[in-house]
Amino acid sequence: MESVDSFSIPVGSLGNSPLFKLYTQLSLCFALPQDSAKDQNHIVGILNNGLQRMSEAFPWVSGQVTFSEEDSGTYRIVPLKRKLQAIVNDLTGDKSISMDRLRKARFPFRMLDESILAPRPTISGPEPPVDWPVFFVQATFVQGGVILTFVTQHQVMDMVGQEAVMRLLSKACSKESFTEEELSSGQLQSDIITPLEQTDLQIPESSPVAHSQTADCSWTYFAFSQKALRQLRSIAEEHLEGVEYVSSDDALTAFIWQSVTRSRLDRLNSDNEVKLARAVDVRRYLDVHASYPGLVHFMTYHTFEVRKVVNEPLGHIASDLRKSVDPRISTLAHDTRSFMALIDSLPDKAVVSFMSDQDPTVDISISSWSKVDAYNLDFGLGLGKPEAVRRPKFTPVESLVFFMPRAPNGEVVVGMCLREDDLGRLQADEWYSKFADYIG
């Protein structure tokens, strides 16, 4: 185990991609009754004690990410010269936000902005921060509630890794002992995945193309009930192609792609191709522990003509998604290790990105967090389980879509960023609205 005061851990090949130099935020909203004896100092004290216990067992969580020009443009985690403690924002005097108002509005994006809920923005502005801590926790107190926002540096961990760290913190706050397995699997290992010795990927002749975002875009949440998700999967399974089944995530991802593409038909040529990039947890393909807290994440890509996306049965699109993640035939292990080899071979790692050919004006990128078990975390606060789990509103990124963790009642809330015209047509789509419930 690394010393709390002295460690230097490479983030690994995937983390060296500048694409991940950002923060991922997740907010858990807890009710805090007005007559509760759980005051702010009590709650913050539990969090800080838990952060201390977790930092002692997993020192890297309290570190910061630094760049090493001497080591072929790589990043490392080194100690941060301050204690990891919860950040507090007291909004109990702000009548515009309260747990009751959030609850009645169903916890929409417009009421959950990163500027008040998170200590760091998802995407840095023109002046980057002076340091890049691995992990933050912010407790935002509102009338009748507390919102805990967990913020992780994406070069270090993906959402599965973030869930693992949150679970370790919940145990630490509850004064539960870590198991030997947790103490082992919870330590970062830069060599946990071995890149290919040679890659079949080509070094691009020019840097990745940046598509300018000119249209007004905004973040919106839609809720899909357990009943709606079962119906979509049932509809998809009526027209399977070359697979034995599709998952609820396959069906929902296909449905979102079809629906968003349909909302854009007025400005798309039906003969042109559109792409879907789907984020995938590749731990099981690479024999990595399911709760390993690092970055073990890659993408699958799906390209069809516009007319096929909108006209094919839902099951055909969902079947294509399923094939790409089927362990029996998936190339994800090879693709991930090949990309790692390419990254390792380049002094300037900014010249490649596995999202570089995505055009957000027509394509779509989807990341599902539906399997993240955030609703069963209580952090020993005595407040029960969270009422809602959301990603806070951040800088608009057109065509980016997130599935929130599945709620205890089976509901999955989907957050998406679309231009206003596309969003208007999507909301007016009767077939889409049959399954999706607008939150905002």
From TrEMBL:
Keywords tagged on the record: Transferase
Keyword Transferase assigned: yes
Molecular function terms from GO: transferase activity
Gene3D superfamilies referenced in this protein's UniProt entry, alphabetically: Chloramphenicol acetyltransferase-like domain (3.30.559.10)
Domain Trichothecene 3-O-acetyltransferase-like N-terminal: residue ranges: 22-173
Keyword NAD: no
Pfam families per record: TRI-like_N
Tree of life domain: Eukaryota
InterPro entries associated with the record: CAT-like_dom_sf, Sec_Metabolite_Acyltrans, Tri101-like_N
The protein's name in its UniProt record: ARAD1C18326p
Protein's organism: Blastobotrys adeninivorans (Yeast)
